[in-house]
Amino acid sequence: MSISFVIHSLEIPLVRPFRTSFGSQSVRDVVLVEAVSDNGVSGWGECVTMAWPGYSAEYTRGAVNVMRDFLIPTLAPLVGESAADSTPAPDSVRAALAVMQGNPMAKSAVETALLDLWLKERNLSLGEFLGAVRDRVDCGVSVGIPSSIEDLIQEVGQYVEQGYRRIKLKVEPGWDLDALRAVRNEWPGVPLQVDANQAYRRSDAEHLARFDEFDLLLIEQPLPEDDILGHKLISSVVSTPICLDESILSVDSAEGAIEFGATTIVNIKPGRVGGFLTARDIHDLCVEKEIPVWCGGMLETGVGRAANIALAALPGFTLPGDTSASSRYYKEDVTEPFVLDNGQLAVPTGPGIGIEPIAANLAEMSTATERVDV
Ligand code: OSB
Ligand code: MG
């Protein structure tokens, strides 16, 4: 067979700036990968990179380059060997992409576009394929660093009213204890957690232990990505569970961090680990080791959100995810919006990821397209 890949670059304004310890954004710089088969069916995947290498080493322009110049061309033999209208199997796509180092978010976008196509050929939903056990998932919301405590209380108040089942505050040195105290005073019982995106250091252990009084579900990624020992040291001083995000890059790194005692809860993001197959494998490992998992987010459009919700429907996802409604991010999404219902989102049931961009929205939001045929 042959496949035409179309790399769509989009810009979508966020409803409010999203500030974290690694920077601020007010427009989401999105890349959607479309894989078009011989008979004109499209599969879709979202690349979750940020515009700059602040969360991890990947960034959007680099991801587009590596997809165009390396990842997609690497698939040419595999696609060429396949019979007409028979998309290569997901495992073979993952194996072919694995010859290239790193770049998990770019790999995930390419792999997911082909997986969507492969599932559509079989009339199978991503949820069914992955092993989903529920048709609705519990949703939390991630709250960026605002300019004042008043703004924080106002924003959190909106989310609590909308029914979100858990609140996550972004924190950094200088924006932590006062913010937590203010939210806890207003909502003593709300399920609450924090995410530092690597902003603290080993020497902050005593400071992080002061978070314990706020009865948090977890502290997400307090230290740098490569500091596994540091997370273990912190967890011997802090009672609140430590949950790794950026440090978990593969099944083996997950197993290492768990066995070593650096993490007792895991945030799973398909983009960070190179795709949904590996995300499912990390889930399976965590279930076996009795480590609770939850589905992270990267401010996805409906394309990435649909697939994340299918993943979050697996049995080990026992904590609410950063799988918020479209309205938390965008006034207008590129797909039909995901709407919160009683603090939950419905798992898509259509073939593949179960959703696709609305052509007019895609055209309006698009800033560039590049085509690569294999
Ligand atoms: O660390 O979880 C993170 C957004 C962009 C990059 C990293 C992170 C986040 C979030 C928001 O916390 C999650 C979401 O609502 O999509
Ligand atoms: Mg995080």
Structure explained in plain terms:
The chain is an alpha/beta fold. It folds into 2 domains: 4-122 and 358-373, 2-Layer Sandwich (Enolase-like, domain 1), CATH 3.30.390.10; 128-346, Alpha-Beta Barrel (TIM Barrel). The protein has helices spanning 60-74, 76-81, 90-97, 104-121, 126-130, 149-162, 177-186, 205-209, 228-235, 251-260, 270-273, 276-288, 302-312, 359-365; strands spanning 4-20, 23-36, 42-47, 136-138, 141-143, 167-170, 192-195, 219-220, 242-244, 265-268, 293-295, 344-346, 366-373. The longest helix is centred in the N-terminal third of the chain and has 18 residues, at 104-121. The N and C termini lie close together (9 Å). Bound molecules: 2-succinylbenzoate (OSB) and magnesium ion (MG). Magnesium ion (MG) binds next to loops.
How is the secondary structure organized here?
Layout: E1 4-20, E2 23-36, E3 42-47, H1 60-74, H2 76-81, H3 90-97, H4 104-121, H5 126-130, E4 136-138, E5 141-143, H6 149-162, E6 167-170, H7 177-186, E7 192-195, H8 205-209, E8 219-220, H9 228-235, E9 242-244, H10 251-260, E10 265-268, H11 270-273, H12 276-288, E11 293-295, H13 302-312, E12 344-346, H14 359-365, E13 366-373
Parallel strand pairs: 5-6, 6-7, 7-8, 8-9, 9-10, 10-11
Antiparallel strand pairs: 1-2, 1-13, 2-3, 4-12
Helix pairs in contact: 1-4, 3-4, 6-7
Bound molecules: 2-succinylbenzoate (OSB) and magnesium ion.
